[in-house]
Amino acid sequence: MTDYPAPPTAHEHAFFAIHSHFSERRPSTELTIYKALRRDYPEYEVVATKVTFCHLLSFVDYGLATATPIHGNNHDISREYKPPTQRNKKKNADGKLKDKVRVGLWEYVWEGNEYLYYHVEYDANSYGSKEIVVFLLSRKWPVGATPETTPEAITAASEAAKERIDKLLMAVGKWSADVHSEIYVFDNTTWRKDRNLYLSVMGTKWSDVILSPALKDGIINDITTFFDSEEMYTSLNIPWKRGIILHGTPGNGKTLSIKALINTLQTGERKIPSLYVKNLDNCSYGPKHSIREIFNRARTLAPCLLIFEDLDSLVTDKIRAYFLNEVDGLESNDGICMIGSTNHLNKLDPAIAKRPSRFDRKYHFGLPELAEREAYCAYWGKKLEGKEMVQVTAQMAGVLAGFTEGFSFAYLKELFLASLVAVATKTEVEQAAGEAEVEEEGGSASSDSTVVVEKADAVMEGGADKAKIETPAVEKKEKEKVVVKPISEDEIPEELKGNVFFRVLCQQITSLRREMDDKGDEGKAEATYGREFIAGDDEDDSD
């Protein structure tokens, strides 16, 4: 007797059809898969959808449904290892294994209804843009039941199956559209929910932001008042939208203020969602498509906070008109409060920076005054409270504030971090403790206490009968030494002269003064402290 191989199951046949499709030139992936599933699952109703507002597996992760893999050997899945970070090794010493699914199949159960869930991911074009299409299958008749073959019965069974799928899509879609301890981030042509960013931002409160009271209160009142004033805007028959720009020297609290705003709004009574635009890169369709996607999502989630960090870099001349059309064109932006930040207000087009109804108010973040520097030093005093070797007293905070004129918050942060590292390594502590004296004001500076400043080219011009004399190129760059003097012994209060940590702080102040003078211009300073993304610096407390 000859043993014949068993015919392929519906799952196997469907997988082979999908596999064959991706092995050849294909005009329409969705249509091909849809036809294959209808052919191989005649007892099911098939509905295709996108994951944009239908995160079926995330719905499962939150315990709202169950999904059991049944793809067996018929799948396209990579088992990928994700190593632990140094900071979470104690919690997750071995790292994690995760599935990267391109083609997979699950048995999906929600509210007692059973479905088949096909997940297919593929390259949508030659640029590598990913497309994910989801297919849900619901049985027309129970397993083992004899289907009625009358046209009316077939139609009724199909409609009932479609209704079950629609109920699931509606539930998952409604849940997916809301934010659940997440922040929406627009990156690489699409929106994604970022829980890690949310957890980072939730660690930032307004008490961590050291600004002048007028500036801080102005920003808080401006934003919170907007979201509480829908009825007032409506009664006055004006669009309920708002835009503000945070601008100024890098490292003075713009990013930290945005984080605190996100925290305040998402933990408030109304739970206003935040949407953060990381970039407009879109190799497939260009940045105009990205702008359209950004505002479409903002209008869907309104009222919301829409954040454009480094606005001058995001909105270039090529897309400025398109951006402005989305901001105040024909479509309604009711409920959208936009925040743009920039280190270079002068680089923004006047149509953006100087036109009310687009960005209505501008808040300047300048270098901190004496009171803000003292408050910041006192803030570190609270952070270091109880640590005997590195205590910062109220007197120390006041004196340090006086020594740090011209420091940004970023440089003040570096002052404390570098000093704490010095204490930890003990090298500079021992040096400070062993110093017999500090160089006096006007004393000779060591060779590393100077920075080189280049004088402007010297040109002498005579009258018509005199030859033009120009300094030779080698001599043009005449160098002049500018001394950055250490803090003198006379400047240190008597009570602090024996404080080792204070002396380390003074050493670091001198070192940072040299660095600041060596930078020479804002462009160089920005190389160190500029462009600190919300999504890329989850522990920054300076910008």
Automatic annotation (TrEMBL):
A Pfam family matched in the record: AAA
Entry GO terms, CC: nucleus
Domain AAA+ ATPase per the UniProt entry, residue ranges: 240-369
Positions with biased composition (Basic and acidic residues): 73-82, 514-525
Any GO BP annotation: ribosome biogenesis
Matches recorded under CDD domains: RecA-like_protease
Protein name: AAA+ ATPase domain-containing protein
